Amino acid sequence: MSPFKGQTGLKRILNAAGYSFDGLRAAFTGEAAFRQLVLLNVLLIPLAFYFDVSRGERALMIAVCLVALIVELLNSAVEAAIDRISLDLHPLSKNAKDMGSAAQFVALSLIASVWAVILL
């Protein structure tokens, strides 16, 4: 057992939920890209209910929007960890941050592709 592990059972679940909300709050207050994606989701998710598509298609349209939020959270976490290690310019740090950015680009491309295939 790891000495860094905390509570078990319901207490652990409640703690984990608190940490998750702390992470969402940190992303929303500290990351402009996350706020922009939240705004995009606020626009696109209700719009998905406007179109006459099947339930499966609607679910997919919503899911890809949420995937972009997940990718941005992970990208921000990678950037924070890299910055915590060192603010010095280093090729590996640049690669890690660029790959996170590329992942977000792919996620946004996925939104565009899925919505286009379903609606066009």
Automatic annotation (TrEMBL):
Active site residues of this protein: 72 (proton acceptor)
Keywords: ATP-binding, Cell inner membrane, Cell membrane, Kinase, Lipid biosynthesis, Lipid metabolism, Magnesium, Membrane, Metal-binding, Nucleotide-binding, Phospholipid biosynthesis, Phospholipid metabolism, Transferase, Transmembrane, Transmembrane helix
Tree of life domain: Bacteria
Protein name: Diacylglycerol kinase
Entry EC number(s): 2.7.1.107
Membrane topology summary: Multi-pass membrane protein
The organism of origin for this protein: Pseudomonas cavernicola
Biological process (GO), any one: phosphatidic acid biosynthetic process
Chain's role: Catalyzes the ATP-dependent phosphorylation of sn-l,2-diacylglycerol (DAG) to phosphatidic acid. Involved in the recycling of diacylglycerol produced as a by-product during membrane-derived oligosaccharide (MDO) biosynthesis.
Primary location recorded for the protein, binned into one broad class: membrane
Lineage: Bacteria, Pseudomonadati, Pseudomonadota, Gammaproteobacteria, Pseudomonadales
Transmembrane regions: 33-53, 60-82, 102-119
Binding residue positions for ATP: 12, 19, 31, 79, 97-98
Entry's localization field: Cell inner membrane
Cofactor: Mg(2+)
Cofactor binding: number and manner: Mn(2+), Zn(2+), Cd(2+) and Co(2+) support activity to lesser extents.
One Pfam family from the record: DAGK_prokar
One annotated GO molecular function: ATP binding
Similarity remark: Belongs to the bacterial diacylglycerol kinase family.
Catalytic activity field: a 1,2-diacyl-sn-glycerol + ATP = a 1,2-diacyl-sn-glycero-3-phosphate + ADP + H(+)
